[in-house]
Design goal:
heterodimer; A: mainly beta; 4-stranded antiparallel beta sheet; 1 helix; 11 strands; 47% strand; B: mainly beta; 5-stranded antiparallel beta sheet
Chain lengths: 117, 110
Amino acid sequence: DGGITQSPKYLFRKEGQNVTLSCEQNLNHDAMYWYRQDPGQGLRLIYYSQIVNDFQKGDIAEGYSVSREKKESFPLTVTSAQKNPTAFYLCASSIGGTGVAASYEQYFGPGTRLTVT
Amino acid sequence: RKEVEQDPGPFNVPEGATVAFNCTYSNSASQSFFWYRQDCRKEPKLLMSVYSSGNEDGRFTAQLNRASQYISLLIRDSKLSDSATYLCVVPSGGWGKLQFGAGTQVVVTP
């Protein structure tokens, strides 16, 4: 089955520790995205990548880092510099390219709930 | 003003009834719009894309009012399984970047 996987589903960390969230897709999509969702708020874009070895900051990139060494994988590291890391983290992908549908029709993984205490 | 605004609800709807709700957007240049459905504690899933004045898919109809800058979603013959939060999504200032509304919660009751 084609899709996007994220692991783990739940993650607990102590304050001051870095943590890496996994995102893998086998849809052959060029573009990948990371969002966070807080209760009562819309999704906010952290980082996105249009092609391998290239990525851009989203609206709330501070305290996060990413890499895109393979087309299938886009891991997100939540660093100790992120002030409020507890959230629901969602990874998404899209076909990519210049067509509207290719760029904007995004498909999401099941998410990782991170709790930092 | 937020780029995308939605009434958070909840909209409590009897099974079989029709429900409609709006989403307002601030960028008058937006050309495409999307509705996503998100079940409780799950990921959003694309419900419908709107590239012109509207779109219809079975019991779901999206209508775009460019003059007033809002897009509506109408659900006919509501099913219990339609209970979810509906996210309005608008492209925002750059390749592949989307602005998500906070969502409208719909609760369909027996």
